[in-house]
Amino acid sequence: MKKPIIILAVTALFASAFALGNFVPVFAAKYKVGKDSKLAKAACGVCHASAKGGKLNPYGDDLKAALKAAGSKKLTPEILAKVEGLDSNKNGVKNIDEIKKDMLPGAK
Ligand SMILES: [Ca+2]
Questions:
Q1: Could you tell me the distance, in angstroms and rounded to a whole number, from the CA of residue 89 to the centre of ligand 1?
Q2: Residue 17, pLDDT above cutoff 70
Q3: Cα 13 to ligand 1 centre (Å)
């Protein structure tokens, strides 16, 4: 009975690595995220609850909606651009301005 659980866990691990491999580098390349920046350290936490992933934060929700609107499962610089003018975390600062200031656009 243990095998299916192990297979599921391994699949989940690959799935999260797959998301990380596709999303984080696209974001980092578009916004020229510095190695020691808050955004780089946040990694998956730019869009998710924590650096390890988890639930989407408000910025992640907006990106998910933009991906859906574009009919894409792959994050592109164009899709990132679609949420730049939004204020996902409703703190009065647009996502793009927060990213430029090395702030997290989905943080409360
Ligand atoms: Ca904001």
A1: 5
A2: no
A3: 31
